[in-house]
Amino acid sequence: MRSRHKKIVGLALGERSLLAAEVIVQDRPRVTRLVEWAYPTDQWPAEAAQVGAALGPFLRMQGFAGRAAVVGLPLKWLLARPAAVPATDAATLAPMLRLKAETIFSGDSKDMVLEYTGSGPVLLLGTPGKYIAAARELCRAAGLHALAVTPTALALGQAVAAGQGAAALVLAVQGDGCELSSLRGGTAEAMQYLRGPAAGGAFVSELRRTLSGWHTSDAARDLVLWDGGSAAVDAVALSGALGLRVRSGALSALGVQAADTGINGEASKFAGAVALALGAARGGAQRCDFLHSRLAPPRERRMPRWTAGAVAAGVLLLAAVIYGYVDLSMRQGQIADLQHQLDADKPAVEAATAFVSKVSFAQGWEADAPRYLACIRDLTAACPDDGQTYATSLILRETARPTAAAGPTTAPSRPVRTLSGQLGGKTVDQDHVQIVLDRIAHTRAFTDVKLGGAFVAGRGHEVSFSIAFTYTPPQSAR
Which has the least CB within 10 A, 53, 146, 180, 431? Predict the structure, then answer.
């Protein structure tokens, strides 16, 4: 689909200057103007409006008549990362890539404008939003209508790939740096900003290392070199160093007619700017456009989501209040009925409570339950009758063990009360102390039998001991 604009201006931005090319849209697009312009201020892109105000008159003075522009960004301002995603439709792919960008670009993604190229394995691109805002403001102040903002290297690679009908490796020398891109079928597989040829052997080493890491296909083994006519890179020497066939690029290879632009053999320097305008002239919208990013957050509706949520929450809250009021009224009525019934039963409950208290107290004084005597009896039976072991003290205390409450239809069970005690005594040696301890521990009614201490005392070297225990009376003594 051919563009509706008859003349399109391509602006390839740099850090200190820009390259501009004007292309007339016809059966075979024709380049009519090529110019390089240095920014009047070193505060780019902060003073984009001031730069644009000076650019407009300059372009008109150079004979530029087009008012539609495509702006190209250098790779130095971008981050490019491959992202593997499953085959899916564009509506599903966009949110998927937005999530991937948060991981791939880490904390940088918050202030970035994101875009991508490709459909299967895609190349995810990001650039700080200040550059997109500056490009928009530059065109506005220069009196130009910005059609798109895209990477210059991508536009040039697409133009080269379209011209040779195959995959392409493109190296464009720009000032003190180079832009390397690999494309297949017009889709970028990888893009990288590299140091310039002035670095000497380091430039070739970095270029070889980058190409090796990309694993580009055999179909992309030819490298198209755009040196801007400066002869900074020797194609023959570069071919030998890389093991690739390197050929110099020319504007004619892009499928355009080059009019007399007065550049004197440096037309290839403007290949990026020509490719930017050419992409819009041939295909209309760019495949990768930061100005109309496919990864931009969805536009807010006229009614913000928080407003719709607040209205829904308000309705739910009102319904909850009405329901709560009705439910509270019903429960208050039920509580009033239960309170009235409780007040009516209060005298009977108090009488029953007093009776249970008296009975429970009296259970401990039954004549047929001599628990203390039973404990003394069992202790006497447990101590050996050897004429050498005797008791010197006995302390017994009553410990109430909690029992389950009786049901409404059953009588309360008698509480099982245990005794905790401590037996003190003397014997001839430690062995006899152990005998006493074992005999008490093996008596069924005694539990938690522990030796409190044993030590030699007195002139006859007698051993004094103390044994703590818990006594649970037999059934007949409860």
Answer: 431
